[in-house]
Amino acid sequence: MTNLHHLRFVNHFHRLGDGFYTECRPRGLSKPRLIRCDPHAAALLGLTCEDLTTRHCLDFFSGNRIAPECRPLAQAYAGHQFGRFNPSLGDGRVVLLGEVETESGNWEISLKGAGKTPYARQADGHASLNECLREMTVSERLAELEIPATQAMCVLAGDEQVYRQGFEDAAILVRLAPSHIRFGSFENCYYRRDSEHLRQLADHVIEHHYPHCKTAGEPCYAHFFYEVVIRTARLIARWQAAGFVHGMMNTDNQSILGITLDLGESAFTAERDPDFVSSADDEKGRYAFGQQPVIGLWNCNVLARALSPLIADDDLRTALLAYEPEYLRSYEALTA
Known about the structure:
Elements: E1 8-9, E2 21-23, E3 33-37, H1 39-44, H2 55-61, E4 73-75, E5 79-81, E6 84-86, E7 94-102, E8 105-112, E9 127-128, H3 129-144, E10 151-163, E11 167-177, H4 183-191, H5 195-209, H6 220-242, E12 244-245, E13 267-268, H7 292-307, H8 313-321, H9 323-335
Antiparallel strand pairs: 1-7, 2-4, 3-10, 5-6, 7-8, 8-11, 9-11, 10-11, 12-13
Helix pairs in contact: 4-5, 4-7, 6-7, 6-8, 6-9
């Protein structure tokens, strides 16, 4: 494929096998056109915004043409939503197109709005142009602030229409991240009492994203969890320093890498209003700006429970006790 021949697909997540995802082809867009491009994100794949206007790139990133090396899938996960466990989650309208190896690292390419997946339930699987553009704006702002987050590479629109309090153009948001694995991915294994898959998932994440933890020998899982807690504390300190409100801090939206996932409900509060809520669904203010540090720790506690078959209680407790001092140190350093 012209402009894409250099992409080397490795697809590490796909190798985990059944139980972690369902293979799923994107539905695609008719007559896709490029609406917006972030040149810095495109460069991560060795592409330019001009490349993304070519027919080959438009067909590929709209899901209309699947490269032979791609194994598109929708991830399975569980999660605590507004404090209550939901065992039946997963990517309802997001398809992981594949993972590519580049000079800047490995990047998973995901398409938001690529049609209904087996996890869509009653949703239509689509995304509107306005919501894709809004999420891309937030992603670009986070990049400017050097806050770890998924990278929104481009927005493509098609001839289809979706209804969102009125008809809008259907669109696909193309996002890049080192991994889209989340706390809820581990919850999915734990609540199915599948210790084999739980260990397999932890080994995968350590192998590809926390390789330094392997030097610790068998207690590598405790080292891994400690690192996740520290990264989460540092991430939320960055959010608070910047006035960023995630809006939907369910555990299925909390990254195992300590990056900002799922920006659809996000906003900024310039006044640092502790009661500011960015999601209309958050009627009780659980995820208000001032609550984010507490919820970050709450989510880490949920992850600790999910990892408890692999990690001793004392080690889990040690890691969780490190959250608050790390958050405070990081926040002070950012706001001094």
